[in-house]
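Here is one chain, start to finish.
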Amino acid sequence: MKNKKEEQIAARKKHKELLKKNRRSEPDLERPTPNLIEKPTILIVCEGENTEPSYFNQFKLTSATIKPVGEGYNTISLVKRAYALSQEKKYDQVWCVFDKDDFDDNDFNNAIQIASGYNFGVGYSNQAFEYWLILHFNDHQGGGIARKDYNQIINDLLKPFNVNYDGKKSKLINDAFFELLDGVDDKTNEKRIDLAIKRAERNHKLHNQSNPAKEESTTTVYLLVQELLKYV
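Its structure:
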């Protein structure tokens, strides 16, 4: 009996030791710190100090950081300013946004070439940025529109919506205006921004881009907007 009892005690002891040996260690409740992926940063250097920056600031990017700045420079001087800014801080993309206006044809064309040489994106408009806004509402087929008429054309298009664009003074794209630009067209049931992209691309491709200063009415702002929409 004694030997049997001792055997039972020994067996229980061995079993406990085996359980202890095979027991898993307590799980680590502390989660590892995730690797943070830095958002790409897009610098947009604009000729205008009001219209263009106020427009691009309306884009709410979720997977990128946008920095529109209105510098008050034009054509070649704007591109040089963009280059200077790109040297002060690292940006994943740099875009130059400027208009033909009444600037010299060679300066305008050279600015496009110089910016491309720096690997900058270019959102130029011939004649002015407001042409891009018009294309959201009007399927203009290209060809000349007097720049002085842009403001009236835009406000005629906005009148049914009780929205106004102050193209003579503040020249700001406010929330109400941008909401329309980003809204849905009643006739086509398409987003106006998508319509503007298609129209601008079509008009741009009507030309061979050998002399952008003479290719009125065109705008490559659609290229920049297409890029921004990837991060919305």
